[in-house]
Specification:
By secondary structure, the protein is of the alpha/beta class. The chain is about 25% helix and about 35% strand.
Length: about 210
């Protein structure tokens, strides 16, 4: 029987590709913006695109934030994607600074604007945002990223996979118990992304 997954519609991005990817890996997907429905869910995926700001603060401080915390505190499987992962942390510097859900300890920082692509003098400057395919360690698989901000985790044991962009090594995926977050977009990452989502649905670590 397919596992029922609640896909949270928080007005932070297009849900169609995430829904399609979850269906591909065998999930029965239900999209909702109702905090009461989220609070009683047994498996939750919380995707996000865009930026920390007033909209995300309304989620953190409102009924949806309470619902997300209930799922996490209960120990049911939870996955935050991209901005959805960043919201799991304490605080973001974006848009003047905003608090997150505080599930994981750490801060969300912006990539430096003057970050060179290599060690040699005169190396070209990397573009911000970080957009495109990049490999993650230790498994070496490639995933698709699009983000200007990255997480600095205060607890290295929470970091499952890492990725490097220029001189910055950042968490590509985090995990504590049944709570997962990924900075990459699994729904845009072809077979690697589907393997990651399937592992989450089946209760693994990717």
């Amino acid at each position: 029987m397919p596992r029922e997954v609640i896909l949270v519609d928080s007005q932070l991005g297009n849900l169609d590709s995430v829904e399609h990817a979850l269906i591909q890996v065998g999930a029965s997907v239900h999209i909702t913006s109702d905090p009461d429905r989220v609070a009683t869910a047994r498996t939750v995926v919380f995707p996000g695109q865009g930026s920390f700001g007033p909209a995300t603060q309304a989620i953190v401080d409102g009924a949806m934030g309470d619902a997300l915390r209930m799922v996490i505190q209960r120990g049911d499987p939870f996955l935050g994607i991209c901005l959805g992962m960043q919201l799991l942390f304490d605080h973001s510097d974006e848009n003047g600074g905003h608090d997150g859900l505080g599930v994981f300890r750490g801060q969300v920082r912006r990539f430096p604007a003057d970050m060179p692509a290599g060690e040699q003098p005169g190396s070209r400057m990397l573009k911000i945002p970080h957009v495109g395919w990049n490999d993650v360690q230790p498994n070496g698989e490639h995933f698709y990223f699009t983000h200007s901000y990255y997480v600095e985790s205060a607890d290295p044991e929470d970091v499952m996979w890492t990725c490097r962009y220029g001189r910055i090594e950042f968490p590509a995926a985090v995990c504590r118990g049944h709570v997962f977050g990924c900075q990459f977009h699994p729904e845009k990452s072809q077979w690697s992304g589907l393997r990651f989502l399937r592992s989450f649905i089946l209760g693994g670590r990717g």
